[in-house]
Amino acid sequence: MNPAHTFRSTFTVLVLLLALAVALPGAATATPPNIPSEATARSELAALRVAADGSSSGYSRDQFPHWNTVSGSCNTRETVLKRDGSGVVTDGSCASTSGSWYSPYDGATWTAASDVDIDHVIPLSNAWKTGASSWTQTRRTQFANDLSNPQLIAVTDNVNQSKGDQTPATWKPSRTAYWCTYSKMWVHVKYRYSLTVNSAEKSALTTMLGYC
Fold first, then answer.
1. Up-side HSE of residue 139: CA atoms within 13 Å toward CB?
2. Whole-model pTM?
3. What single DSSP character describes residue 196?
4. Which whole-number Å values give the CA distances from 139 to 65, 132, 168, 207, in the listed order?
5. How deeply is 38 buried, as exposed, middle or buried, from its count of CB atoms within 10 A (0-12, 13-18, 19+)?
6. Could you read off the pLDDT of 32-53 as tens digits, one per residue?
7. What kind and span of H or E run contains 77?
8. Cα angle at 190 between 197 and 204, to 5 degrees?
9. What would the pLDDT profile of 72-110 be if each residue is shown by its tens digit?
10. Apex CA 107: angle with CA 106 and CA 113, to 5°?
11. ∠ Cα 193 198 201 (to 5°)
12. Fewer C-beta within 10 Å: the chain N or C terminus?
C-alpha cells in the first residue's frame, strides 16, 4: 500500500474520531457569558475602588427580587439550569425533569435539578455592603437576575450554601483549576456594577488570577 495513502487514511480516521468525541453528549461545563481575559480582569481589578465593606443594616434578600420571568413560563433559575446543563429536558412549566449538571466549583456532576443551586457569584449581601444599598430596587433586580454578565452559575447546592456571603478572602472553589475563571468572573461583575472591594478581597483575587 502507498505510504502516503496509508498516512492520509489514518489521519482521516483520527479526525473523524475527534469529531465524534466532541459531538458526543456529556456533562456541560457551566460557562456564564462575558468572562473577561486575564489581562482585562487584571485591568478591571486595578480600577476597582478599595474600601472597607459597608453596613449590612437594612439588607434582606427581598431587596434583590429573583427569580424573574425571562420568557413564557421560564424564570431566571430555570434559564440558567438549561444554559449550564447537558441534555436538559423541561416540562410545560419549564421545570427541568432530566439532564445533567457539572459543578465547576467542586467537580461534581448531578442528574437532578434539586441538587443544583444557582450561585450569585457576587453574593447579594456582599453587593449590598459594597454599593448596592444605594441602588434602586430596579437596579438590584437586574443584578440578581443578570444573564448578560458572569454573575449566575449552576453549582452543587451544598457548595453554594457553604460559600454563603463570603468573598474570595475566606472562600474559594475547592478546585484550584477553577480559581482563574472564578476570579475573572468576580472581578468583572464588581467592575460592571461599580462595586467596591476590600483589601483582603483584592489580595485574594490577585492570588487567584495568578492561576491563569
1. 12
2. 0.86
3. -
4. 10, 8, 24, 31
5. middle
6. 999 999 999 999 999 999 999 9
7. helix 76-84
8. 45
9. 999 999 999 999 999 999 999 999 999 999 999 999 999
10. 90
11. 90
12. N
- Cell 437576575 sits on residue: 145
- The neighbour count for residue 154, using CB atoms within 10 Å, is 26
Give the three cell numbers for residue 57.
443594616
Enter the C-alpha cell of residue 90. 423541561
Q: Which set of grid coordinates corresponds to residue 50? A: 478599595
**Are 78 and 96 a contacting pair, CB within 8 Å?**
yes
Give dist(CA 79, CA 63) in Å, integer: 22
C-alpha cell of residue 157 = 447546592
Tell the residue number behind the cell numbers 487567584, with chain if given: 208
DSSP of 120-188, one letter per residue?
Answer: ESS-HHHHHHTTGGGS-HHHHHHHHT-SSSTTEEEEEHHHHHHHTT--TTT---S-GGGHHHHHHHHHH
- Nearest-angstrom CA–CA distance, 29 and 35: 14
SS3 assignment, position 71: strand
Output the nine-digit C-alpha cell for 115: 441538587
Rounded Cα distance, 203 and 66, in Å: 31
